[in-house]
Amino acid sequence: MLETLGTLIYAPWIYVLIALSVLLDVFLPLLPSGVLVIAAATAAAGTTAADMTGLAAPPHPSAHLPEMFFLVLCAATASLLGDLAAYQLARHGGARFENVIARSRRLTTAQQRLGQALIRGGGPLMVLARFAPAGRSVISLAAGATQRRAKHFVPWSAIAGLTWAGYSVCLGYFGGQLFGVNWGSTAISVAALFTVGSLAAYLLHRRPSAARA
Q1: Per-residue DSSP letters for 120-170?
Q2: 3-state secondary structure of 27
């Protein structure tokens, strides 16, 4: 199946599928966008354009660079567009989103922490939050609901999306190169992504305590 996905990486619609998944998971964090990006990169690691014609071709270090570049570009662009959509919705429907957030103690606490960080110019926090579970959703909605300026939000959102996309694609690609193109290597890469996400969540929760100390 991964071999089939590797061949499909040359089809334009696979990038559309990845883009939609990444774009929408800001509203539906349960969507496996990171898993999809990693699986596509893993599959591409063992596939070349020659596989589509059945002709043998010698491996080349840069054989997969175009596919990796477009995967990163596709995922990063979709990440930024999704963040902007959530930001604008929360910005123009501030009262409604404030009411939704107020119903959840966890979201209220997260909003306060992120708001304080943004006030202090904590742009790097957005990059860290991009890796944490639902962190992207919370920070985009919080930035919009608290009327943060776009010039303070957009550049860091772009950097966060590019960092996340590059890391995910590299995990999948090098995992496929090291462990072979199979679901085992994909699982290892996904586990590495989740580990970084757990570390990011821990650091986000620790920051306010450290600041008070």
Answers
A1: TT-HHHHHHHHHSTTHHHHHHHHHHHTT--HHHHHHHHHHHHHHHHHHHHH
A2: coil
> What is the per-residue pLDDT across 113-155, written as a single tens digit (0 to 9) for each?
665 655 555 678 888 889 988 888 888 888 887 787 888 889 9
Q: How far is CA 58 from the centre of its chain?
A: 33
CA distances, 154 to each of 6, 17, 18, 70 (Å): 33, 24, 21, 21
HSE-CB for 161 with a 13 A CA cutoff: 29
- pTM score, two decimals? 0.80
User: What is the DSSP secondary structure assignment for residue 181, as one 8-state letter?
Assistant: S
| Six token digits for residue 172 | 């999948």
CA dist., res. 21 & res. 33, Å (int): 5
**Helices within the chain (DSSP H only):** 2-8, 12-24, 33-45, 50-53, 65-92, 94-102, 105-119, 123-131, 135-145, 150-179, 183-212
Q: Please say whether the beta carbons of 52 and 67 come within 8 A.
A: no
Tell me the residue ranges of DSSP E strands in the chain: none
Within a 10 A sphere around the Cβ of 162, how many other Cβ atoms? 19
Provide the residue type at 117 as one letter.
Answer: A
Q: Give domain limits for the chain.
A: 2-212
Tell me the pLDDT tens digit for each residue of 28-87. 877 789 988 998 888 877 764 344 334 444 445 456 778 889 899 999 999 999 999 999
The sign one gets for the Cα dihedral 204, 27, 165, 191 is positive
Q: How far apart are the first and last CA of the chain?
A: 52
